[in-house]
Amino acid sequence: MSKKTRVIISVTNDLVTDQRVNKVATTLINNNFDVLMIGRKLKNSQEINRAYQTKRIKLLFNKGALFYAEYNLRLFFVLLFTKFDILNSNDLDTLTANYYAAKLKGKKIVYDSHEFFTEVPELVNRPKVRKIWLSIEKHILPKIKKSCTVSDGIAVEYKNRYGIEMAVIKNFPRKIIVEKANNEKEEKIIIYQGALNLKRGIDKAIKCMQYIDNAKLLIVGTGDVEDELKSLTKKLNLNSKVEFTGRIPFENLMKITSKADLGISIEDKAGDNYNFGLPNKLFDYINAEIPVLVASLNEMLKIINKYKVGEIAVNDNPKDIAKQMIDILNSEEKLKEYSENCKKAKEELCWENQEETLLELYKGEF
After folding, report:
1. Is the pLDDT at 94 greater than 90, yes or no?
2. How confident is the model at residue 364, as a pLDDT?
3. Which residue(s) pair with 33 in the sheet?
4. What is the pLDDT averaged over residues 286-314?
5. Cystine design at 267: which of 29, 112, 274, 325 (Cβ 3.0–4.6 Å)?
6. Torsion of Cα atoms, 349 then 355 then 360 then 363, to 10°
7. What residues contact residue 318 under an 8 Å CB cut-off, 6+ apart?
8. Nearest to residue 273, comparing CAs of 158, 160, 173, 162?
9. Residue 250: helix, strand or coil by DSSP?
10. pLDDT band at residue 215 using 50, 70 and 90 as cut-offs
11. Which of 301, 305, 265 is nearest to 285 (CA)?
12. Best CA proximity match to 273, nearest among 200, 327, 325
């Protein structure tokens, strides 16, 4: 029996909700690779049971510069004393440890950029911090032979910036069969799922609920601005219309998403990361066969225009967006049309159609 190629995948989250790395790991396991996934251990981390090995590192610091420095230092030594053939580094915040561990041990590395890291809203207005990340990116990324990202737009930007060719592996979900309840609900459900971070348009969605009756906004996830969003909800007296579920493991997420009537991804126009991004949630909504309402951002525009699975937000004004939401939710014709188009689109927008590109990264010469 031939020896399995061992891949170590590393991220800075706690593995509970990261769908992309789970799909990558599962694909590799199913194709005779041996996989270890490394993340970090948080105080509220839930137990996980996966088809591959996992390890979570407990840290003294959990945010800011000290967190990134400590995590990369600890990760570097874990990698240094663990056997592997290929390292999979996810995003710029794991790249330093992975690159130098692979270089020191003479092993291979694959870089997976889940977003346009140096263009995220948290960095664009912090030039000194952004400069540090840009220097890491500029120093290491051009030296990596095999890398991938989540959208065509990000791949083009990296090619323009460093002259590198990145494979595009989009955040499509595994295809599922959705069972829709036939009973009419008294209350429509609008869903946002994902990180509760800066400029993701969640505050706009909350403000929209001032103008919408017989509907609830379900916010699924946690993040840096969660407390501010809850305070806004309370301030606007919308606690009966807005529900925060907290973190939901991705294994249970589709049960919730499929019960919704409208999925939203109305990020602010706040830098190239969102403009070129293709978030998991958009394709989860399509996979759940629910209509979508998205911001007028490059990559998401392409999906709406091609597959007709929903609409583009008219502008950034909550009152106008609310009117658009009401129009969709109250139109049986639109709901049916967009849902039917989702059924067709999900046949193409599924992880099964991305696996060949992924496997090509791990095979052949580096």
Report:
1. yes
2. 77
3. 5
4. 96
5. 274
6. 170
7. 204, 205, 207, 208, 210, 211
8. 158
9. helix
10. very high
11. 265
12. 200
Dist. CA 264–CA 153, nearest whole Å: 21
Q: What is the DSSP string of 139-162?
A: HHGGG-SEEEES-HHHHHHHHHHH
247, 256 Cβ separation under 8 angstroms: no
Residue-wise pLDDT for 126-145, tens only, equals: 999 999 999 999 999 999 99
Reported as half-sphere exposure (CB side, CA atoms, 13 A), residue 164 has a value of: 22
Which residue do the tokens 């501010």 mark?
Answer: 228
- Check residue 272 and give its pLDDT: 81
What mean pLDDT is predicted for residues 191-210? 96
pTM for this structure?
0.92
Q: Which two tokens stand for residue 62?
A: 């959990």
Q: What is the mean pLDDT of residues 146-150?
A: 97
- Whether the Cβ atoms of residue 250 and residue 275 lie closer than 8 Å to each other: no
Alpha-carbon span 304 to 161, nearest angstrom: 28
Kindly state the tokens that stand for 219: 């916010």
For 247, residues 6+ apart whose C-beta sits below 8 A from its C-beta are 16, 17, 44, 46, 221, 222
Amino acid at 181: A
How confident is the model over 223-251, as a mean pLDDT?
95
User: At residue 32, does pLDDT exceed 80?
Assistant: yes
